[in-house]
Design goal:
- It is globular, with a radius of gyration of 34 Å.
- The chain is 54% helix and 7% strand.
- Helix 14 packs antiparallel against helix 16.
- The strands form five sheets. Strands 10-13-12-11 form a four-stranded antiparallel beta sheet.
- Strand 5 and strand 6 form a beta hairpin.
Length: 635
């Protein structure tokens, strides 16, 4: 009948249930409350003569009554109402005293996170207050983080520090006036020792209740955020208020440089196993019984090289044809701008179209109608069935990653992770002839260095690639003009043909490449190896560092010139060479190889002390020497 019987309930709990129903109805992303579960909650509260849901939900027991008497649906209702009521019953000052903070007091609510942020794991009141003020300051700031990550990190640092002070410092660290530099130094030494021997943490526990193991990442995070928190407290005057000596703050160590460990691409065996149709069917059958699209997500990640979250959070109408080409529109900014388009294979376009039809059918089954245009625009391609009555909330990354991990473990593929698909795509693109600039643009990276982090370049491949970048030398009519056919990427066949052609039409010279065919064939140089004044001499990408050094040398000569006239003469003499160097840098930058060319010195050490021509032999001389040796041996 849609009616609730609240007769006989305590007036406060009756008001709480009414408030909870009204608040729940206004949420955009909400769970499903059936009328039977709400009535069951009212009946239970009446039988147990309860006075408030907040106390019962926060303690888990009240007057001997346990929450185990609730089923899962009723328990979910209780928690949602009580979590919302905390912002009503507690002021910000009250939350500080009680040992937690509510983000909604500051107008903030992070994605897929509650407003409640518990600080009770920190036993020292002064440390908890310092942390509360720090978090409150971040929540009030215009540069407030977009997620709860920084708040979790700084809380973890305080839990680690508080747990150590509890067992090592005087009075358990509860009196900050007794703390000095030696206590901060012992804290750092203890955590470093736990990292080195993989020992359990003093304060952090896992979801299964076991202590968390201290790793390089967790230790570094603790040092970084503990020092950041205490420096903020020192500058704001909180340390002086609680009586904490500044030597304790200054003795807290820095986290050190982060280890940027790049994952390797999938091996051929692993890639074949993860793309095998039988294994993919097993993935869908065993880990996706409700058909949320886990297989479709994985195939889209493999085919596009997108980040996992970019595929999971695709919108319903994310695909389309433009001039006959299938395109995928997604968000590369991580802030909800679904305006980046890439081409996708035909089979993926068809698969995502089938997934869209399933999502629309699910919406119609749940709501008894088709979505209107505004709802369709907001709908997710892979919606969750939790807190998403209109299908606008995607499944969680945790759900997909945990399912993927169990699937990979079942296939005995070692430590393969989702993000390796992105590294594999970048490496395949590079092997197919794409430059780092093209890879960076396709993957949505912010710099060539980040693209290089994903694309695995073998040293020999990079050597060959830099050697094919040619510009006219100082003696040419247009020094620095590109001679390698532009900045477009080459196919594998074109690259192989170019490498063969270069070996036939050029030979190494000091600081570049000689293209004069008689010299290439082994004859003597008619211009007495005056390469810098020869129009047959070109600069390659492998020589950029050599010419950078030459440029520095000439500038040094000009600065030490005795007169301005001599300095001007030196600048004018080197001007064609400077133009050639600038053209080479522009060509390398256009291909995304400038940083690599500056980082690699491809010349041998002896090339800088004597000309290459002085250690070369003509092919005819070698053949004659071989025939003379053969005659001596036969005689």
């Amino acid at each position: 009948m849609g009616l609730l019987n609240l007769t006989g309930l305590h007036p406060l709990i009756k008001a709480e249930i009414k408030w909870g129903l009204n608040s729940h109805a206004q949420l955009k992303h909400r769970t499903h409350w059936d009328i039977g579960s709400v009535q069951g909650l009212a009946n239970y509260c009446r039988q147990q003569k309860m006075t408030s849901l907040v106390d019962f939900a926060s303690t888990g027991e009240s007057d001997g009554r346990s929450r185990k008497g609730f089923d899962s649906r009723v328990r979910r209702i209780v928690l949602e109402i009580s979590n919302g009521l905390r912002c009503v019953y507690y002021s910000p000052a009250d939350t500080k005293e009680a040992g937690f903070i509510e983000t909604e007091h500051f107008g903030r609510r992070f994605p897929k996170a509650q407003s409640h942020f518990d600080l009770a794991a920190i036993s020292q009141q002064w440390l908890r207050d310092v942390l509360w003020e720090y978090i409150a300051g971040m929540l009030r700031s215009a540069q407030c983080p977009r997620s709860r990550g920084p708040f979790d990190y700084v809380r973890r640092a305080c839990v680690e520090l508080g747990a150590f002070l509890e067992v090592d410092a005087p009075q358990g660290g509860h009196d900050p006036t007794l703390l000095g530099a030696e206590h901060a130094q012992r804290f750092a030494a203890d955590l470093l020792n736990r990292e080195r021997h993989s020992l359990p943490s003093l304060g952090i526990v896992r979801s299964d209740g076991k202590p968390s193991t201290v790793t390089f990442g967790s230790r570094r995070t603790t040092f970084v955020y503990a020092r950041k928190l205490m420096l903020d407290a020192l500058s704001s005057g909180q340390c002086a208020q609680v009586g904490l000596d500044h030597t304790f703050v200054s003795a807290l160590p820095t986290g050190g440089k982060d280890r940027k460990v790049s994952r390797n691409p999938f091996t051929d065996e692993v890639a074949r196993a993860l793309a095998d149709d039988t294994n993919l069917k097993m993935f869908a059958a065993n880990f996706d019984p409700n058909d949320r699209g886990l297989r479709d997500i994985w195939e889209a990640i493999v085919a596009t090289g997108r980040r996992c979250s970019e595929i999971i959070e695709l919108r319903l109408d994310c695909t389309g044809r433009y001039r006959g080409l299938p395109m995928l529109w997604h968000d590369q900014t991580k802030v909800g701008n679904y305006n980046e388009g890439i081409r996708i294979p035909e089979y993926l376009y068809t698969r995502l179209g089938e997934r869209r039809d399933k999502t629309l059918a699910s919406f119609e089954d749940r709501n008894g109608r088709v979505p209107n245009p505004d709802e369709r625009k907001q709908m997710a391609l892979f919606p969750t069935d939790v807190r998403s009555p209109f299908g606008d909330l995607s499944i969680s990354y945790g759900f997909f990653s945990s399912s993927f991990k169990e699937w990979v473990d079942g296939l005995n593929l070692g430590g393969s992770v989702i993000h390796q698909a992105r590294h594999t795509m970048a490496t395949k693109l590079l092997a197919a002839g794409a430059s780092l600039a093209h890879i960076r643009r396709y993957l949505g990276q912010v710099s060539d260095r980040m693209a290089e982090h994903y694309a695995k370049v073998a040293p020999s491949d990079l050597d060959d690639l830099l050697s094919t970048v040619w510009v006219a030398g100082p003696g040419a009519a247009e020094p620095g003009a590109p001679l390698f056919g532009g900045l477009e990427p080459l196919s594998r066949a074109e690259a192989q043909a170019l490498a063969i052609d270069l070996s036939r039409t050029s030979t190494p010279a000091e600081g570049g490449v000689c293209t004069y065919q008689p010299v290439v064939n082994g004859d003597a140089c008619p211009w007495k190896m005056n390469c810098e004044g020869c129009d047959k001499f070109v600069l390659s990408g492998a020589d950029l560092l050599y010419w950078r050094r030459k440029q520095e040398q000439w500038r040094s000569y000009a600065e030490r010139a005795p007169t301005d006239e001599i300095a001007d003469y030196l600048h004018q003499t080197f001007e064609p060479t400077a133009r050639a160097i600038e053209g080479l840098e522009n060509a390398l930058a256009g291909l995304g190889l400038l940083e690599q060319a500056l980082a690699l010195d491809l010349r041998r050490p002896q090339d800088y002390y004597q000309r290459i021509w002085s250690i070369n032999f003509r092919a005819s001389d070698l053949a004659a020497a071989d025939s003379d040796l053969l005659e001596e041996a036969t005689s």
